[in-house]
Write a structure and sequence with these properties.
Layout lengths: L20 H4 L17 H9 L22 H9 L4 H11 L5
Length: 101
């Protein structure tokens, strides 16, 4: 387990919330909370509807890049702006578990 893994909060999409500027500044409490940044997130809805804790649990897509809710132009821009590799995080969760982020 990584250092302080018990304090790590991971969004449905694989974003490590606790490393995000918006989370650290109190503008967002993560998508698992009642105060997410984007309340109508289709990724959040999909995960809730399917009972997943993250997209790493998805049974529909073995290649998560084929999911247009998760991997689209807006999500790629988001990744560049916030310097996050959500797809790599999800793959790591699939292989080793969320505790290893």
């Amino acid at each position: 387990m990584t250092e302080n893994a018990q304090d790590t909060i991971v969004a449905y999409c694989g974003l490590v919330c606790t490393k995000c500027y918006g989370f650290r500044k109190g503008k967002c409490q993560g998508c698992h909370s009642e105060k997410p940044m984007y309340k109508k997130c289709p990724v959040k809805k999909c995960n809730i509807d399917n009972g997943y804790s993250t997209c790493a649990d998805c049974k529909e897509f073995t290649d998560l890049k084929k999911c247009k809710k998760l991997y689209n132009i807006i999500s790629r821009i988001f990744g560049l702006v916030f310097r996050t590799n959500r797809m790599a995080n999800l793959e790591k969760i699939k292989q080793f578990g969320i505790e290893e982020l």
